[in-house]
Amino acid sequence: MKRFILTTFLAWLFFLMLDFLAHAVLLRSFWEQDFQALKSKVELFRLIPFGYLSFLILTILFGWLYARLFKTDGDVKKGLAFGAICGGLFALSNFFGWYSFLNLPPLFMFLASLGYFVEISGVGFVFGYLLHPASIKKRIWAIISFIVFGFFLGIALQNITL
Hints:
This protein is an all-alpha fold. The protein is about 80% helix and about 0% strand. It has seven helices and no strands. Helix 1 (about 1-25) crosses helix 4 (about 50-70) and helix 1 (about 1-25) runs parallel beside helix 7. The longest helix is centred in the middle third of the chain and has 26 residues, at about 75-100. The termini are far apart.
């Protein structure tokens, strides 16, 4: 149970890092526009913690599913495949759902959904990478390093494109 909680926490941080890269860098030009279908920028910024809570719930859900499917025989390859399948289905569902009622550019909705695909694939990767090996100390440091690097990369790219 301790390993599941630790893996869930690190997978969630991985999710947040990928989301930061997607929205703060790749989707930045869309967020700079004023769309009637979206809340004000101030309100969106204020509500970011609710988005992060939704990512935690998704991470717990996909982690629980992964752990149930691969109780003893999981690995990185299975984790990534699991994440890609779940992420792909979730992204398609989101895109079509958003497309049905939001008045946003389809490219924006597609890229945001593609972000979910990558993020959930990353969650599957982290679960496959950390949940099953006998020792995970080095792997934990590798994941933490990747997360920190991703956040620094996002900040650097934001400042370069200003």
